[in-house]
Specification:
The complex is a heterodimer of chains A (about 120) and B (about 110).
Chain A lengths: L2 E3 L4 E5 L4 E3 L2 E3 L5 E7 L5 E7 L5 E3 L5 E5 L4 E6 L8 E8 L10 E2 L3 E6 L1
Parallel strand pairs in A: 2-12
Antiparallel strand pairs in A: 1-4, 3-9, 5-6, 5-10, 7-8, 8-9, 10-11, 10-12
Chain B lengths: L4 E3 L2 E4 L5 E6 L6 E7 L6 E7 L2 E5 L7 E4 L6 E5 L8 E8 L7 E2 L3 E5 L1
């Protein structure tokens, strides 16, 4: 069964610092990979997704993520964070086959706090 | 961007009663989902629904659970009867096609007393 691990439950950084949120997955093939963000009292919003091709994908608000097949990872990065980036970030995977019903498997999430 | 609305945001109910959670998906979307998140745990897939039918459900989708979307209105999750372990945040999502981005609502917090 596929699984997603986000090893850091909480990350605290200062505004303007760089950021990396880690995500590792366990799956027999290369899955579709996603990062979602949840701001307080809002639904999850898609930041970026990887289906195939260039392993570095760009997302909204200056976020990017890099897929590594050898490391089974899909880490999220941002060069300079803003206090408004404070939120919960979820990594998720889905099957990359014709049998995919759109079901996502989520990590536990990482709570990001940015000091102004 | 497209929005999925969930009503209500918080529901408190006595154990054994029936509850219906309502989801207003994005208007042109065809695939609908429910996810469950117990406090402090990861979000877990419950069920997905297309063309009036359940496509896939997880082991968390107990016999007491049912879903429907009558006449293109709300996509609902009904729990009858409720149990204490049903207390969680339930997230609804929709997508336009099968392997596309899911759009999530803000969740309904269900408290079963």
């Amino acid at each position: 069964a596929q699984s997603v691990t986000q090893p850091d439950a909480r990350v605290t950084v200062s505004e303007g610092a760089s950021l990396q949120l880690r995500c590792k997955y366990s799956y027999s093939a290369t899955p579709y990979l996603f990062w979602y963000v949840q701001y307080p009292r809002q639904g999850l919003q898609l930041l970026l997704k990887y289906y195939s091709g260039d392993p570095v994908v760009q997302g909204v608000n200056g976020f990017e993520a890099e897929f590594s097949k050898s490391n089974s990872s899909f880490h999220l990065r941002k060069a300079s964070v803003h206090w408004s980036d404070s939120a919960v970030y979820f990594c998720a995977v889905s099957m990359n086959t014709g049998a995919n019903t759109g079901k996502l498997t989520f990590g536990h999430g990482t709570i990001l706090r940015v000091h102004p | 961007g497209p929005k999925v609305l969930q009503i209500p945001s918080h529901q408190i109910i006595d154990m054994g009663q029936m509850v219906t959670l309502n989801c207003d998906p994005v208007s042109n979307h065809l695939y609908f989902y429910w996810y469950k998140q117990i406090l402090g745990q990861q979000m877990e897939f419950l069920v997905n629904f297309y063309n009036g039918k359940v496509m896939e459900k997880s082991k968390l989708f107990k016999d007491q659970f049912s879903v429907e979307r009558p006449d293109g209105s709300y996509f609902t999750l009904k729990i009858q009867p409720t149990a204490l372990e049903d207390s969680a945040v339930y997230f609804c999502a929709s997508s336009p096609v099968r392997q596309n981005t899911l759009y999530f609502g803000a969740g309904t917090r269900l408290s079963v007393l």
